[in-house]
């Protein structure tokens, strides 16, 4: 075991932190108020390789490993406590990687260079009105082969980046049934462009947090896409989706750690200067003891995140682990990080008192943003528990 960073990792962290402190942090409140990430900021992120950096260099990516991808997620969460920019980052890092790994050459050439340059958006579309956690039972979107095309019908909902995809262009990797009688072995994965398609009707929701990136849905009415928009093999889409979810969950854990550390720093600075009964409130056990607990919780989940990224790198580079190992490690990170982060932010708001209920401090943005991760983004908390139970006990003990 080695609890240290390589020189490359140290340089990358400094680079991302410097960029995030200078370019992102001063704009977070504006992004939250305007419900939009400025175009110039997106272009600046592209210039230093923060848009789908896990994609091959051939298509404009940086081809970074998952440890480096995690470091960037952590630093972006630290700078943008609202978690809007971290959502943009992790969605494209995880699903851009899946598109690069399984997409056809024609599809990758068409979309990936514009995704890594910030001109196109890359998202994920799995959840449907019937539900999100039970993919096999709730995904009813169908895709039928017709000559050299696929015809898609169905509806997706609670999807990140619908507005961005409609305005910029790009694709949402979309799960659809291609063999309805085959259960989880009957799904396929498609790169679906939704911009300027009269057969796709989009809708938008107003979230309570992470306001800089949109959430919405879209209906598909006989949408025709070419065969080369199919990712990998037909009827293997469920497995590609699960692989992408594991990657996204690790990055979610990292962005939550970064945001919670930023919140804790705000709280520490406050309690060391704020007085009550003629003493700095940091002197009181009622403040110190929760601080100690929260710090330990965040430090523990941080190590879990690092271990999960390390397992992913070992699997992809050295074949030393498998997707079950990654799924378990990612679920542990996703189960703990959002909850610990929310608890930290909630505690810091208490320390701030009435000030914590105002927009003078960013804590309220963090509280609103981080809840998306525990409510359901990339899987609810109970789904993480099911995954952990499955990997510990075996799939014969699944509750379904």
Number of strands: 10
Q: Could you give me the name of the CATH homologous superfamily of the largest domain?
A: Butyryl-CoA Dehydrogenase, subunit A, domain 3
Strand content: 15-25%
Gross morphology is globular
Helix-residue proportion: 40-55%
Order of secondary-structure elements: HHHHHHEHEEHEEEEEHEEHHHH
Question: What structural class should be given to the helix and strand makeup?
Answer: alpha+beta
Low-confidence stretches: none
| Count of individual domains | 3
What CATH architecture of the largest domain would you give?
A: Up-down Bundle
Number of helices: 13
The mean pLDDT is 95
Strand order in the sheet with the most strands? 1-4-5-8
First-to-last CA distance: 38 Å
CATH class of the largest domain: Mainly Alpha
Rg result: 21 Å
The CATH topology name of the largest domain reads: Butyryl-CoA Dehydrogenase, subunit A, domain 3
Keywords:
globular, 4-stranded mixed sheet, 3 domains, Butyryl-CoA Dehydrogenase, subunit A, domain 3, Butyryl-CoA Dehydrogenase, subunit A, domain 2, Butyryl-Coa Dehydrogenase, subunit A, domain 1, 400 residues, 4-stranded antiparallel sheet, 13 helices, alpha+beta, 54% helix
């Amino acid at each position: 075991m080695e609890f240290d960073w390589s020189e490359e990792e140290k340089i990358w962290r400094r680079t991302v932190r410097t960029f995030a402190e200078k370019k992102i942090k001063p704009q977070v409140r504006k992004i939250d108020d305007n419900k939009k990430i400025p175009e110039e900021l997106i272009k600046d992120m592209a210039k230093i390789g923060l848009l789908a950096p896990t994609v091959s260099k051939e298509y404009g990516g940086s081809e970074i490993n998952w440890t480096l991808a995690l470091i960037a997620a952590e630093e972006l969460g630290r700078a943008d406590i609202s978690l809007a920019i971290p959502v943009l980052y992790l969605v494209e890092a995880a699903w851009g990687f899946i598109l690069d790994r399984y997409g056809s050459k024609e599809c990758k050439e068409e979309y990936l260079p514009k995704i890594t340059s910030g001109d196109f958006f890359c998202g994920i579309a799995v959840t449907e009105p019937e539900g999100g956690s039970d993919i096999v039972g709730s995904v009813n979107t169908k895709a039928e082969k017709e000559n050299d095309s696929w015809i898609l019908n169905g509806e997706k909902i609670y999807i990140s980046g619908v507005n961005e995809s409609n305005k910029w262009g790009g694709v949402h990797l979309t799960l659809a049934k291609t063999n309805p009688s085959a259960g989880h072995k009957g799904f396929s994965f498609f790169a679906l462009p939704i911009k300027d398609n009269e057969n796709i009707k989009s809708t938008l929701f107003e979230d309570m947090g992470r306001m800089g990136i949109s959430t919405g849905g879209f209906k598909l009415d006989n949408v025709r896409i070419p065969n080369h928009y199919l990712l990998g093999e037909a009827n293997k889409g469920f497995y590609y989706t699960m692989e992408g979810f594991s990657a996204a969950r690790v990055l979610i854990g990292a962005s939550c750690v970064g945001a919670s550390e930023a919140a804790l720093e705000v709280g520490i600075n406050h309690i060391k200067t704020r007085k009550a009964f003629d003493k700095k409130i940091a002197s009181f056990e009622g403040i110190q003891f929760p601080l100690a607990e929260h710090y330990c919780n965040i430090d523990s989940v941080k190590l879990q995140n690092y271990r999960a990224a390390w397992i992913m790198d070992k699997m992809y580079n050295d074949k030393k682990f498998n997707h079950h190992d990654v799924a378990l490690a990612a679920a542990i990170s996703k189960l703990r990080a959002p909850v610990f982060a929310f608890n930290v932010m909630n505690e810091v708001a208490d320390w701030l008192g009435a000030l914590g209920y105002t927009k003078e401090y960013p804590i309220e943005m963090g509280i609103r943003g981080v809840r998306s991760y525990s409510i359901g983004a990339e899987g609810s908390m109970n789904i993480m528990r099911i995954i952990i139970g499955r990997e510990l006990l075996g799939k014969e003990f699944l509750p379904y």
